[in-house]
Amino acid sequence: MGVDFNHQDEQNRTPLHYAVQYYGVDFVKWLCESGANWKTADISGQYPITEAAEKGDPPVVKYFIENRPATRELKNKAGQNALAIAKACRYNRIVQLLDPGNKDYRVKEDEEDPTIAPPKYTLQQLLRASENGQVPIIKEFVDQRYRSLATKLINVGK
């Protein structure tokens, strides 16, 4: 008995949809290389690449366009492909990946990525929240900053 990398839940979401939503490019890459179907839309009509564009995840979008170029043309139920979504969200880095040279969505190399918000809490505030069991603050930090920190680390490593 093997693993079904294309199993769909009640929302027609596959492991690849969840990898895009909650994890990062390494897990997405592993699933694709293991046979996950990147052409499967969920019940909302979202494909993994359209979800990555909506989430504002340049490394995942870059992986898809470099390794699964046909994903560029996949459109969600609203009729938007990843480029249209990135333009609507003003994710300039993603627009540049999908439409290099687009002069309306420029990104300076030394420019801070606008999708990476500055920290809301200091280290001291986070430590105090942890000591006092202030779960909502810790949860907010994880939800908002983990992806941003991971994106920064990935970009630094390049």
Automatic annotation (TrEMBL):
In terms of Pfam families, this protein maps to: Ank_2 (PF12796)
User: Repeat ANK: residue ranges?
Assistant: 11-43
Glycoprotein is among the record's keywords? no
Keyword entries, A-Z: ANK repeat, Repeat
Q: Which InterPro entries match?
A: Ankyrin_rpt, Ankyrin_rpt-contain_sf
The answer, when asked if Repeat is one of the entry's keywords, is yes
Specify the protein name. Answer: Ankyrin repeat protein
Annotated organism of origin: Didymodactylos carnosus
* Organism classification: Eukaryota, Metazoa, Spiralia, Gnathifera, Rotifera
